[in-house]
What does this fold into?
Amino acid sequence: MQLTDLTALELGRKIKEKEISVREAVQASLDRIAQTDGAVGGFVTVDAEGALARADEVQKGIDAGQYTGLLAGVPVAVKDNICTEGLKTTCSSKILYNFVPTYSAEAVLNMNRAGAVILGKTNMDEFAMGSTTETSAFGPTRNPWNPDHVPGGSSGGSCAAVAACEAPYALGSDTGGSIRQPASFCGVTGLKPTYGTVSRYGLVAYGSSLDQIGPIAKDVSDCAAILEMIASYDRKDSTSIDRRETDFTSALVDDVKGLRVGIPSDYLGEGLDNEVRAAVMKAADVLREKGAVVEEFDLSLVEYAIPAYYVIASAEASSNLARFDGVKYGYRAKDYESLHNMYKKSRSEGFGEEVKRRIMLGSFVLSSGYYDAYYLKALRTKALIRQSFDRAFEKYDVILAPASPTTAPRLGESLSDPLKMYLGDIYTISVNLAGLPGISVPVCTDSKGLPIGVQLIGDCFKEKNIIRAAYAYEQARGRFPAPELKACGTSAVCRENGDRVSACGAGNMQEIHEAVPDSVQKVCKGHSDLRPACPAAKEVG
Amino acid sequence: MESCDGISEGKVMANIISDETIEYVGILAKLELSDEEKEQAKHDIGRMLDYVDKLNELDTSGVEPLSHVFPVHNVFREDVVTNGDEREKILANAPEEKDGAFKVPKTVE
Amino acid sequence: MAKQYETVIGLEVHVELATKTKIFCGCSTAFGGAPNTHTCPVCTGMPGSLPVLNKQVVEYAMAVGLATNCQIHQYCKFDRKNYFYPDNPQNYQISQLYLPICHDGGVEIETAAGKKVIGIHEIHMEEDAGKLVHDEWEDCSLVDYNRSGVPLIEIVSEPDMRNADEVIAYLDKLRMIVQYLGASDCKLQEGSMRADVNLSVREVGSEKFGTRTEMKNLNSFKAIARAIDGERARQIELLEEGKPVIQETRRWDDNKEYSYPMRSKEDAHDYRYFPDPDLVPVVISDEWLQAVRDRQPELRTEKLARYKREFDIPDYDAGILTESKRMADIFEETTALCGKPKKVSNWLMGETLRLLKEENMEPDELGFSPAHLAKLIELVEAGTINQTVAKEVFERVFYDNADPEKYVEEHGLKTVNDEGELKRVVEEVIAANPQSVADYKGGKDKALGFLVGQTMKAMKGKANPGAVNKLLKELLG
It folds into this structure.
């Protein structure tokens, strides 16, 4: 077994027991990235130099007894909407193409305090708006299980990087399913914590009332350990919750006897792929066999979650993304006549289509005369959805559900119809509206060989319930296999500044130039001079 | 064609977004759209709003709008200066800067 | 017959609160730093930064609300006001629209026309914007975020005022209240108090309000008075010509004495307010409210009444003394030390005001200690120094906060009470001024004054003028 096949905890143990050095662990990941990320395109930025320097620093810290945690020295990939001091943070948007934060997110600081080593920043749907990682300004990420399919999104880069064994674990963010759905599509485990558990300070906001940072890893144990590390009460985030019990690893117990598990029958109806339904039932059977009490129930209001979500998230986004105006940071249009012209041009050229669509929708629903009809109505609906979950958790400890109606769609299939893409979030979105924790665990692969995950949803602050259920399920399932990666040859590295440009689908440099969005080539002049990221890509012209 | 979600492409849209509305929203959001983009936006927003109108099926009278999922309140800072001079950091990402300030096109009210 | 018009005025008064730090971050609110030296990711709208509310802002807002007889919303929230402008780094301002902290209050004002209550619609908390400086050299603008995030309260009046006198009386009243609370220094010229005037006109007797305009950039009481007259005239002219008044924001140009419309068509005036998801509600318990109530200092109106009751000083003096909290504090502390309110009042009303005027200073800037003024008064009362010397000593107290006892000692300014010494000098003066002596004896009383003066001069001021007078009369018999 290679180092990169290990889970984060396994790797951490080897480092702790001095079987391997931190540098070896980091180098193994960097080598793997160089080898496979051309095909996957999981990373927007790889910080090899910084990671190796940090590896040596952490090694010293471990040797000196400063870092004693389970994950000390284990490398990590961070979604590109989480601020990392001194390391470019773009949200996969042209408008932040050159933004280098001067501060780190609280979650990142917590990882640093535990001796983490950041490998780089992962690709995502632009500003986390999307479910496929295709709305990234830097090109799409591919599903490691099949490069013709999307990895899901918006944390597609993080999930693909973990699935491709490029990083032992990663941080993602989840506003409407952005950790759980791509985790399901990529065959990895992803956890969205209760709102307020992980500080949002330094997470570039999309829908502030819904956003949460969470772990993505190979298994449930890793997720529990990572969450334990990044969860904290942060005085810098007013919505942070002072939680008493964050010893999530204590819930890693293979025992679900008497656990009450409910399956919303309204999640199993029309629109749900048969193979996904079968996977949910398979997981239910496992839990039942282990002594859990599993039954179906009516959750109700399912079909109202998506419209409520899109009103709330778009409204908040329209305001949150107003700050990107070319004044303080990021992209500023080259030619403009006046202040307002500069605003309009910078924003119109800097934001992608999906982001603009949501900003427009959000501005509209908040505009004079529509606020009550749309925004307040959505907030009232949110209250009702919350109540329906409250009722469910009077009867059940855990809700078992699909993570997505289907397995990963083919590239390009979703973007043509935004509304249809939104509907794919039907099982994940209400969890964000109600602030609940949810975990996505892989069950099996479908007939096309694509992973299927199921979701376990807990009541507020009851992460331990879903961790326990997921862990018990996982013990019965066994280790989930890693995908066999196809040959690489689809990315390039800028000769001037070393920036990695993802250009999936391109076979040679000519195609890479075509695949890299024109806009990016223009704003980052370095990208006009590219070299292949790995030998397989043929350089032409 | 009726898709699985019950949204049909052919259905007459209840929400007809006018050119003026798109123009107005563009001003609010500081976005400049090409004619083609405007047409697309009209279609997309209209369709989304049709879908959002589904919420009207729900009786929400007497339901308090829920902004924050948890009833957390009174999160305060004490009135103590904790930040020093961070100007260099603050200006580090400025597209244009002059004399320690962010430079913008001439702006007069 | 020409139509008669009535002016209807409401005010939006912004007051910068005297907190040490900004409303949502730990940056200093101190004035005068180089551009952007009092900034951080929060007050410059960096991606991922989040606001956390300064508790002192809430306490000041509550205090002002209680002092202006407002109801307090014990559950209040912050909303985002969305508009693009470079001085506003997030392109939204955090303010309160739906549930402002205070509402439905009012203050009593007094003008030549009598007393009147001006209603206060609401008071809300919000953040100030940064500063835009026009750079003539490059024809661009420069943004400084040092003021961005400085806490403000906005006091919104009802449209209860009818003329400039009432407006100024109202502003003066607010200023006094806020200063007394220590919530702000309220300086119009420096921008720590800013008033926007909402004005409309209607025919006398009409129940309906006319269309109003909002005027900004009014940075003195005089400018406000001129702006009210100017805008009233402009609106009446429009109405007389049968043209409509357009509801808009106008900028008052005090040099041209005319207001001009602000902002272009690029602004839709649609602020898309919604509750800020980054901030949690403020819940004010009865206990908290009571604690703030208990801490409320005595305000001017109460103080004035008490002065009239407790101290035997003229109403006019009481009015002047209480016009500034600092002045009133000095008066009370000095009186407590020396027990002579009338004397203390005289020093403050006389010499202190004279020197303030001479130095173009505000009473708030008074720096001397009440103990020193009390000592000075005691020295005079004891006859240790005379009134003339006392004035000289007071200047040192005023400028340097000098200890009068020490000063008198060091400079040998004590009144000479040695009768022999005094008699010797008086005799010398009589001998040296035979003409004046003759004049006095010839019935010219004025000549006596001259001789007293000469004696005082010879004594370098250190004599008791009464004693000199008496002695001269004796000797000249």
User: Anything to note?
Assistant: The longest strand of chain B covers residues 101-105. Chain B touches chain A through 55 residues (CB under 8 Å). Residues 87 and 100 of chain B are 7 Å apart (CA to CA). The helical segments of chain B are 19-29, 35-52, 87-91.
